[in-house]
UniProtKB/TrEMBL annotation:
Keyword Flavoprotein recorded: no
PANTHER family associated with the record: 23S RRNA 5-HYDROXYCYTIDINE C2501 SYNTHASE (PTHR30217:SF10), PEPTIDASE U32 FAMILY (PTHR30217)
Record GO terms (molecular function): peptidase activity
InterPro entries for this protein: Pept_U32_collagenase (IPR020988), Peptidase_U32 (IPR001539), RNA/ubiquinone_mod_enzymes (IPR051454)
Keyword Protease on entry: yes
Keywords: Hydrolase, Protease
Name under which the protein is recorded: Collagenase-like protease
Amino acid sequence: MQSKDNKTRTIELLAPAKNLACGIAAIDHGADAVYIGAAKFGARQSAGNSVEDIAALCDYAHQFGAKVHVTVNTIIYDDEMDDMLQLVRELEKAKVDALLIQDMGLLRACKEQLKTNISLHASTQCDSRTAEKVRWLASLGFERVVLARELSVQEIADIHTAVPEVELEAFVHGALCVSYSGICYASQYCFDRSANRGACAQFCRMAFDLKDSDGKTIEHQRYLLSLKDMSQIDNLEALMRSGACAFKIEGRLKDINYVKNVVSAYNQRLNAIIAKHPDEFRRASFGRVECNFTPDLNKTFNRGYTHYFADGRQQGIFSPNTPKALGEYVGKVKEIRCDSFNVSTTASFANGDGLCFINRQTNREGRTVEALEGFRVNKAVGNRLYPYKMPQGLKAGMGLYRNQDQAFEKELAGQSAVRLLPIDMELGLTPDGYSLTVRLSGVDVPKVEAKATVRFEHQEAKKPQRDNIVRQLIKLGNTIYACEGVEINDNADRYFVPSSVLAELRRSAIESFARQSLFVEEADTLKKHGSDSTNVAAFQYINPSQYKRFPYLYNVSNRAARAFYEQQGTNVKSAFECMDTKPMHDEALIMQCRHCIRYSLGYCVVHGGKKPTWKEPLFLELGDKRRFRLEFDCKDCQMNIYAE
């Protein structure tokens, strides 16, 4: 987003909101926008919210110039479309700022039937990984495109260079889907739970055997598709310079303390970067955050952190030993007794801490099996810990990790931050009383002001009134405002003004100011509804080749979506979820991944790895013996997974 002066770029920190409380916490801790699901159609079945709560969140966020994006990014069935359109009407009345959409049938309906003024964003479920795809989506009326998580900083920069007029949103933190979003059908295929309908069964967090075509076991019961969590906090400045304008934290299913901690960490880092480059960047919303704890990303749920592909393909992006949160390393087990043990560490512990360790054992086949074992601390006496129940397998010398820090959670409980809008006040005289003007304070802020007057005769004071005037005007109590300065004009302080009159004047001015909009019209934004024309020739090249072989990748689940693609010159089949029967043997691509098991295990000869001794194709096998064929597409440097 380019600001009106065409010099500074507007940066948005976008936070998840499981519910109204999480949304308010996100705003209080520094988010410029939040994204939240409605009661239905939000790609997270257990994170739905009423329109009334969403409206309340809009009212709260808009005070700071922050925005509310609502996810309606599932695929939609024909018998749901009327309900979906009614929901959009209600969301528009609630004054939401943007809708995240995957279903092209909904896009068509929003344009042709509703003619909504809400900004439309192409969800990450749209599988946007190329400039051609982004350009095409923009031509349809999307003002912003949420990019695939798999892109590098350079790839994002290349897209921005090719399509500079489109807002680009990039994920920066949280859980990773191993498949490109929108084209994962593993959960639907195996468990009849559609990821594209918000019911993902977490197929990628399961344990698999990796076998070759002769049945030889290469890896046994490991979490070969389970990725670490993304953290781009150290890449923020590079991402800001890449052309992305919105930085998204994953986690609509996460609790309020996750939101508080992660948003605070990214808010503070963004502010530090902008403080160094004030002529280049500015935040998308306003207000000063006063936080009463020190954010620490290691103390929030994570499976270990990775930059993923931000710096290009790297080792160490997956967590094959466990899909659970390991937590921060806190030391080594030193000495064990029957009911307790002590730890060699500089960390401090609290009653109720959650700790874990990696238990390595040898199974009947002689293979080493690693399992994450966790336990709770009943009592902590210095470095000696008394668990509720002594964990089996704990040995001296083992590394110990903490994935639940009670002291830190206590810091986050209650009001852990407050966000205030800085204002300036100006008191002046009117012919029959006094006026008070309130303005938004700061550099590079919109010109927002409000004025109130009160009738009261001018009475010469017996003593100076400046101190009392200032003292009364800055009494802002439980409001969201903080007065930075009071200017007194016309020698108004030579007159006596009762404190009650000043209080009335202040209340009136603040109430009027609160009704003002802090939103700034951005330069170079797209027309909201794009072009009605279609570029059939361009459409043929926007998706990977697999879309031709597996046309269900277009996720067409309603008549409006089918008509949309026919208008684009493509005759597509029904979505995977709408098929009468599952695809036959070797006809179902259920995942397409940039994560490559062969590379991660050190056997990619293209990148200097060892030459494999196994016989391909390789297969992933679940405990119930269902197996899935792996295809290593070295040309496009990706891994395709097929149902057997």
